[in-house]
Amino acid sequence: MSGFQHVLVSRHNGLGTITLNRPEKLNAFAGLMRQELATAVRQVADSDDIRVVVITGAGRAFCAGADVAYMREVLESEDWEAAEGLVEAGRQVVTTIRSVPKPVIASVNGPAAGGGANLALACDVRIASDRASIGQTFNRIGLHPDWGGMYFLPRLVGPSKALELVFTAEMVDAHEAHRLGLFNRVVPHDELTAETEAFARMLAEKPPIALALAKQAVYESGGRQLSEMLEIELEHQLQCFRSNDASEGLRAFLDKRAPTFHGT
Length: 264
Fold this sequence. Notes:
alpha/beta
């Protein structure tokens, strides 16, 4: 998997790592970088040998959001079609992350601002360095949150706190973000890669069908009633009952050994 200008992709022992690679610009999005990211996520998630996807940034930042100089060029030229395309490309990234059946982890190695913040929030789990920070910085440049921020943020912190974070446009440090529920875990910076990999490997050893169906159910639950979720749970559980992984899991439990799941 190669050929991207600003996105690096590596695969190792069931993990697919996607690295935003514009470190000199704090991995801010410009050009076709958004489209490259969406394509990379889809390609990695579609690989049979990949169980978990990790997204991180090169250098000292996770992602600074939009490249302001590039954005200014688009707006000053009044190319509204191009401007709409930027927002649409961000939407494509978010919907791709949410729709792929494999866990997607954000390994937040530094500041995540604007679209970069909401890229992190779009991921299933966020593990952050103690040097990381996150913020809805859009109105600093006169813009409105996108990349799904208006969906993710109030669901994580509640509407009032979400509005405070959006109105102030302040960056929140790693420990406060963890307290608010924006980050799942905060670890020492030098241990971020190892901690992310350890968590990802733990997920990679889980039954893929069960994880995929659970991811789908959790994200469907926001707009469903209890009766509907009980029907979804029944459907998903029957799929699991019929899988080889369920047979393996039960045998391993009774044999008092670690199971080996194959996603079948």
